Amino acid sequence: xxxxxxxSQLDISEHEKDKLVGEVIRYILFKTxxxxxxxxxxxxxxxxxxxxxxxxxxxxxxxxxxxxxTKFVEDKSSSHMTGLTFVVVGIIHLCGGKVTEENxxxxxxxxxxxxxxxxxxxxxxxxxxxxxxxxxxYLQKEKVNGPEGNIVYYELAERAxxxxxxxxxxxxxxxxxxxxxxxLEAD
Length: 187
Fold this sequence. Notes:
Layout: H1 14-34, E1 40-41, H2 42-46, E2 57-58, H3 66-72, H4 79-94, E3 98-100, H5 101-110, H6 126-135, E4 139-146, E5 149-156, H7 158-161, H8 163-186
Antiparallel strand pairs: 1-2, 3-5, 4-5
Domain MAGE: 81-187
Protein name: MAGE domain-containing protein
Pfam family, one: MAGE
């Protein structure tokens, strides 16, 4: 059973607490939609309330069943970004959770996405589309100094490591691999 937060130290009434929670939730929902799913900075939330922990940003994730989310929430006009997210997270997942930028672009080139392309019909600038996945916390980007110069790594971040997302990625990748095996056996 989840513990109920103790607001007695804040010296606010139940009505004030409910109003504050409603304002925070409303703010989070609108800000998440406005920022394209990017995390919300702590400073933005502390303007509403000052009783937050040590986190630097907050991520809202949907708890809706997939069919309800698809019917009522999913934005069909951004399906290309959903597809890119799935492909990139899938590649990094198959590479063990971390991949060099060079290796990631090698795999994306095989799918027709080029690192320096600025006029892609769906993504415009493909490098910026990949950077959006970092801002939305699907990926972390890390620059490491090595003997051969700087190497950039992409690693799975909070949203990609979420149990529901991780399970769906594994399920879809398994389905793809099984289809490939079946089609090879048929040949």
